[in-house]
Amino acid sequence: MNMQLGFRAHDFGKFATADELATVIETFQTPSSIQLALKKVIPTALDASDYTPRYIDGIRQALAAHGVHVAVIGCYINPVHPDPEQLEAHLKRFETHLKFNREFGCRIVGTETGSLNPDCSYHPDTSEPAVFDRLCRSIGRLLEAAVKYDGIVAVEAVSRSHTICSIARMVRLLEKFDTPHLRVIYDPVNLTPWTGIPELDGSVRRHPSQEAQRSFFRQALDAFGDKIVAIHAKDYVLDEAGRKIGDIPLGTGTMDWKCLAQELQERLIDVPVLLENLNPATLTQTLDYLRQF
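The structure corresponding to this sequence follows.
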């Protein structure tokens, strides 16, 4: 199985037009897929509240002219925002992206699951039952829009800091909303505990064994592998205090991506693998590395 390799668009920088963005992406790979958070990559783009079918279709066509298509519409909100007015604004923005999924050429709209801090950073009470219930109310509302517009709400777990911070919590959410309109963006680095991947005996090594990593991957894939619609690919290391630094380019840390690729192949999970925190200066080497798997 050859992985469907793609990119997070705003890692390439900021651009004036979709054509300029796609021209750069085309130099690395064509055809190609991206996760597109429109305002992050084109700061002058219209706000979601001003979208029109013609405008978004124009973005799609400009990308397609260079062999680039949208695999995930990035609309990362805080669905448990502590301010009710801000929460309402976040949910409306996500609903708008679902409404225009056909014009984007992509049914999947992605978000993380937030925290009690407005910026989604760690808050000690985010794991309280009331916050999970708030998330469920938000997801329930977004799924109504997903059904209406035939879109998909894709959620991404983040260890420790977000409402969905573990495999078990993701399973709980998926069981509560048993619908094809709710799916998973699997980011193994984001799911890695802040203190690293544990060995089978409970210890933690700076460079986890392949056995430990394979067990970690299998736990997630056994739990929700059939619900995954995209995979985020980056890397991590543990700092001197034993805490995860999880925002570095793939191949520069300790995650065993070859091992994960084998697990995906064995399970016939063939979804876009989108590089995050990429370095354009070394991207060609990263792609060559991944294409070996």
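Strands lie at 4-8, 32-36, 68-74, 108-112, 152-156, 182-186, 228-233, 235-238, 244-248, 272-275.
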